[in-house]
C-alpha cells in the first residue's frame, strides 16, 4: 500500500471512530433515559389493538399508549428505524456485546446465505402469532415469569436483581441465552426474534430514506455487507430500502470508496447528524407525550374526586371516613399509599413512597387511582405494560381500606357487621374475599333446587349443574364441556368461585380463557333463568337453552 493510500485509510479510520463515538454517546444517553421503551412500544400497540378489538378504546384510557406509539411510528414511517439503530436499549446492548467480542478478537458466528435470511422471518411469525392468538382472539396469555423482556426490565432498572433468580428465573435463563447468542451474532435478537422490530420493519417499508451505493465507483469489496449488523446483503444491489435496516450508518462510514450514502430525496445525508436529530426527536416526543398524558389523567382524577365527593350524600356509605395508609409489593419493591375517605367514599389516593421503576409506576398511577376513585373499588383494570405496578397500587389501596396491614380498618356499614361477628380482621384475607362475604350476606336471591344449564364455548357446549340452598348459589359442578382442558380449567375455578362469592353471573372472564369463562357464565345464567349475552354465541350461531 503506498503512502497516499495509507493516509486515506487513516483518515477513514478517524472518521469511522468519530461517527461511531457519537452514535455510542446517543445510545448511552437513550439507554438511561428510556431503557424500557422498546417493550412499551410493543405493549402499547397490543393495548391499542385489543382496545379496538374489544370496542373498549377511549382516548382518555389509551392516551399514554397513543403517546408511546406516536413518539416512534410516524418517524419510522417517514425515515426508517432510527429508533432501533440509535435509541433502543436492547439494540444498544447487542452493539456493546459485539464491540466486546471484536475487542477480544473473537470471530463472529456468520449466519450467511439464504438460511440466515430466512431465519429473519421468525420474528414476523412470532408477531403474527401474537396478533392472532394473544391480541385478537385472546385465547393465549404468556404465563408470568417466563418472558425474557420482564427479566430485561429488572436488569436495566439496576434494582432488585434478586428477582432475576427467583420470580423471573425462567425469563432470566432465556434472556441469558439471547445475550450469549448476541455476543456471537451481531444484533441476534433484533435480526431474528424481536416483535417490536418486526412491527417497525413493516412500518419502515414506505420510508423516503434509502441507502445508495452506485455500481460505477464500487470496488465490490463487500465491506458494506460485512459491516451491516442486520446482515443485509448490500452486495447484491446498488440501492437498498430493506425493512431490516436500522439506519445505523455502518455501511456508509465503512465504505473505503465513500461510495455508500444515506439519501433523502436524492440528497446525501450526514449520518451522525440525521441519527442524532432522529433520536432527540423520539426522546423529546416520548417525554412530551407521556408527561401530557399523565397530566390529562391527573386532571381526570381530580374531576373524579370532586364527583365522588359531590355524590356522597346520594350514595350509601361504603367506608368509614378517615385517612389510611396501606402498603403492598409492586414490581420492584413496596408501594405505600395514603387513602382518604370522606362521606363514606374514597376521595383521594396519595403516593407516600414507592420502590418501583418510575417508568412503569408513573405509567399507571393516575389511571389506576382514577379508576379506583371512579368505581369506588380496588378491582379495576391493570394498565397494559405496567401490570405489576398497577396490581401493587390496587393491593396497597385494598390494604389501606380492608386493613390487610393490620393497622387500619376503613370498612363501612356492611363490613362492620361482619367484623362485629368475627371481632377481628383475618390478616390473610384479601379484599376480594371480604367483598364476597359482604355479597353472600345478601337476602335470598334464588329458589332452592338443582338446575342444569348450558353455554357456548370456543369448541362447543358447556353443561353445568347449579345448586341453590337457602336462596343462594352454593355449588356449581361441571357436567360436560367441549373446550380444550388447557383453557377450560384455567377459567373454571376462578369463574365459579367468583360467581358463588358474588352471587351473580356478572364476574370477570379469566384472561387467556375468555371463551371458556363466558361459556361457564352463560351456562350458570341459563340454569338460573338469568339473562346473559354471551359474545361467543356469534361464533357458533348460538344455542338453545334447556
Ligand atoms: S429490533 Fe427490537 S430490540 Fe432490536 S433495536 Fe429494534 S426494537 Fe430494539
Ligand atoms: S444497511 Fe447500512 S444503515 Fe442499514 S442496517 Fe445495514 S449497515 Fe446499518
Ligand atoms: S463498501 Fe463501498 S466499495 Fe465496497 S462494496 Fe460496499 S459500496 Fe462498494
TrEMBL record:
Record Pfam families:
Fer4_5, FMN_bind
One GO MF annotation is: FMN binding
Gene Ontology CC terms, in alphabetical order? plasma membrane
Which Gene3D superfamilies does the record associate with it? 3.90.1010.20
Metal-binding recorded as keyword: yes
| Keyword Transport tagged | yes
What is the protein named? 4Fe-4S ferredoxin-type domain-containing protein
Which regions span the lipid bilayer?
75-100, 121-143, 163-185
Keyword field: 4Fe-4S, Electron transport, Iron, Iron-sulfur, Membrane, Metal-binding, Transmembrane, Transmembrane helix, Transport
The 4Fe-4S ferredoxin-type domain sits at: 233-265
What the entry lists under SUPFAM superfamilies is as follows: 4Fe-4S ferredoxins
Amino acid at each position: 500500500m503506498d503512502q497516499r493510500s495509507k493516509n486515506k485509510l487513516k483518515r477513514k479510520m478517524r472518521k469511522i471512530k468519530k461517527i461511531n463515538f457519537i452514535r455510542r454517546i446517543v445510545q448511552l444517553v437513550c439507554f438511561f433515559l428510556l431503557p424500557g421503551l422498546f417493550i412499551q412500544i410493543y405493549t402499547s400497540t397490543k393495548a391499542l389493538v385489543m382496545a379496538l378489538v374489544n370496542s373498549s378504546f377511549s382516548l382518555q384510557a389509551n392516551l399514554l399508549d397513543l403517546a408511546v406509539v406516536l413518539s416512534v411510528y410516524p418517524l419510522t414511517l417517514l425515515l426508517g428505524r432510527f429508533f432501533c439503530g440509535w435509541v433502543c436499549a436492547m439494540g444498544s446492548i447487542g452493539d456493546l456485546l459485539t464491540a466486546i467480542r471484536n475487542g477480544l478478537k473473537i470471530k463472529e458466528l456468520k449466519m450467511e446465505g439464504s438460511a440466515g435470511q430466512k431465519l429473519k422471518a421468525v420474528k414476523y411469525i412470532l408477531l403474527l402469532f401474537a396478533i392472532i392468538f394473544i391480541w385478537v382472539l385472546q385465547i393465549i396469555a404468556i404465563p408470568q415469569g417466563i418472558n425474557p423482556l420482564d427479566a430485561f426490565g429488572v436488569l436495566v432498572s439496576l434494582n432488585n436483581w434478586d428477582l432475576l433468580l427467583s420470580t423471573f428465573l425462567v425469563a432470566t435463563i432465556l434472556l441469558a441465552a439471547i445475550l450469549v447468542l448476541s455476543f456471537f451474532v451481531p444484533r441476534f435478537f433484533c435480526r431474528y426474534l424481536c416483535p417490536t422490530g418486526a412491527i417497525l420493519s413493516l412500518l419502515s417499508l414506505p420510508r423516503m430514506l434509502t441507502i445508495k451505493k452506485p455500481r460505477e465507483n464500487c470496488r465490490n469489496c463487500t465491506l458494506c455487507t460485512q459491516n451491516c449488523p442486520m446482515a443485509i446483503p448490500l452486495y447484491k444491489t446498488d440501492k437498498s430500502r430493506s425493512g431490516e435496516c436500522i439506519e445505523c450508518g455502518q455501511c456508509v462510514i465503512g465504505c473505503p470508496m465513500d461510495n455508500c450514502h444515506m439519501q433523502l430525496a436524492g440528497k446525501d445525508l450526514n449520518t451522525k447528524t440525521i441519527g442524532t436529530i432522529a433520536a432527540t426527536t423520539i426522546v423529546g416526543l416520548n417525554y412530551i407525550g407521556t408527561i401530557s398524558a399523565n397530566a390529562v389523567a391527573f386532571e381526570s382524577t381530580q374531576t373524579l374526586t370532586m364527583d365522588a365527593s359531590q355524590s356522597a350524600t346520594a350514595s350509601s356509605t361504603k367506608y368509614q371516613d378517615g385517612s389510611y395508609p396501606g402498603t403492598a409489593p409492586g414490581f420492584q419493591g413496596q408501594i405505600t399509599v395514603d387513602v382518604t375517605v370522606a362521606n363514606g367514599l374514597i376521595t383521594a389516593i396519595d403516593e407516600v413512597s414507592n420502590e418501583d421503576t418510575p417508568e412503569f409506576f408513573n405509567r399507571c398511577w393516575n389511571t389506576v387511582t382514577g379508576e379506583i376513585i371512579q368505581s369506588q373499588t380496588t378491582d379495576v383494570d391493570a394498565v397494559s405494560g405496567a401490570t405489576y405496578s398497577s396490581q401493587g397500587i390496587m393491593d396497597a389501596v385494598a390494604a389501606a381500606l380492608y386493613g390487610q396491614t393490620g393497622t387500619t380498618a376503613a370498612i363501612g356499614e356492611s363490613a362492620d357487621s361482619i367484623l362485629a361477628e368475627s371481632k377481628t380482621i383475618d390478616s390473610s384475607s384479601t379484599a376480594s374475599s371480604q367483598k364476597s362475604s359482604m355479597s353472600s350476606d345478601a337476602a335470598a336471591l334464588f329458589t332452592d333446587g338443582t338446575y342444569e344449564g348450558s353455554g357456548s364455548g370456543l369448541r362447543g357446549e358447556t353443561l353445568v349443574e347449579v345448586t341453590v340452598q337457602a336462596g343462594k348459589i352454593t355449588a356449581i359442578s361441571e357436567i360436560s364441556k367441549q373446550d380444550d382442558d388447557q383453557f377450560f380449567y384455567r377459567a373454571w375455578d376462578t369463574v365459579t368461585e367468583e360467581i358463588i362469592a358474588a352471587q351473580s353471573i356478572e364476574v370477570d372472564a379469566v384472561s387467556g380463557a375468555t371463551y371458556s369463562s363466558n361459556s361457564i357464565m352463560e351456562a350458570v345464567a341459563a340454569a338460573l333463568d338469568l339473562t346473559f349475552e354471551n359474545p361467543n354465541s356469534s361464533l357458533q350461531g348460538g344455542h338453545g337453552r334447556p
